[in-house]
Specification:
By secondary structure, the protein is of the alpha/beta class. It has ten helices and eight strands. Strand 6, helix 9 (224-237) and strand 7 form a beta-alpha-beta unit. Helix 5 (117-124) packs across helix 6 (131-140).
């Protein structure tokens, strides 16, 4: 089985629609794909309706969190999307995205970059607006050569010249909320240092003690030495180890299925989840 547990659609900051995402996942030879848009579940219905025969959909989300001043992302799988407390928290995070993006645009304008809200809103479309949309605007304007090059201290990285904070969930509260909604939690790309400051291992240990289920180890932002270190940490803390592409369509160069999760780990995730169940494809439109 080939299992990719971290993918984005146009419901947040990917470039594939949810329907295109599942069709492309099947074409890439995946058996299981997770839809994990940022703080959003809006792509579920479209992805489910288009799900090809032989592909299983795992519903999820990537939750925006912050602890001790460090931003981090928490992957949540197979939770009840209508559970009121988690739904309210996701909406609170999403509602803060627009004023945050507008604040980044204002800072960029002060730096002489002629980006506009209309440009960023066009790029975001129906998705939850975020830094990758602002980064794409910088690429369009020729300010940086790629989206990744916008995530530097000069521009949009945490603490960068155009960075603006938004409401982000305390990860310990995120674990509690996801568990209460029947879901499973995995710390996304925990050692992606090129994105900015990372959470120390002592905090990961505290998160594990609070009920964190796993950490994403096999990821494009982790080199081999980092993966070895994280596997050892996971073993010490009794955490599951996942791998995934963090696919964003054409917004990033990584392909679907570039990194995958072992079937035994996927089985354990589905065993622990009680809020929702994987959706088997029956040949969508």
């Amino acid at each position: 089985m080939r299992i990719d547990l971290h993918c984005h659609s146009t419901a947040s900051d990917g470039t594939d629609t949810p329907a295109e995402l599942v069709r492309n996942a099947a074409a890439a030879g995946l058996d299981v794909v997770a839809l994990t848009d940022h703080d959003s579940t809006r792509g579920y219905a479209e992805a489910t309706a288009a799900l090809p025969q032989g592909l299983t959909l795992v519903t999820g989300a990537e939750l925006s969190c912050r602890v001790d001043g460090v931003g981090m992302h928490m992957l949540a799988y197979l939770f009840d999307p209508e559970e009121p407390a988690l739904l309210a928290e996701r909406e609170l995070v999403r509602d803060d995205r627009v004023p945050r993006a507008q604040g980044m645009i204002a800072k960029l304008n002060e730096l002489g970059v002629p980006v506009t809200w209309q440009q960023v809103a066009r790029i975001a479309g129906d998705g939850s607006v975020g830094r990758p949309h602002v980064a794409t605007a910088l690429v369009e304007l020729g300010v940086v050569p790629s989206v990744g090059d916008a995530f530097t201290p000069d521009w949009l990285a945490d603490g960068g010249r155009a960075f603006v904070e938004k409401h982000e969930t305390d990860p310990f509260e995120a674990i509690r909320l996801v568990k209460a909604a029947g879901g499973v939690t995995v710390f996304a790309h925990p050692a992606a240092a090129k994105r900015g400051r990372t959470v120390p291992e002592s905090t990961i240990a505290e998160l594990a003690a609070a009920g964190l289920d796993g950490i994403e180890v096999d990821h494009m932002d982790h080199d081999e030495d980092t993966r070895v270190r994280l596997r050892g940490l996971a073993a010490d803390l009794g955490l599951l180890v996942t791998g995934s592409s963090d696919y964003h369509g054409s917004r990033k160069t990584v392909a679907l299925g570039a990194y995958t999760t072992h079937p035994d780990v996927y089985g354990e995730i589905t065993r622990r989840a009680t809020g929702a169940f994987p959706v088997p494809g029956t040949g969508g439109a």
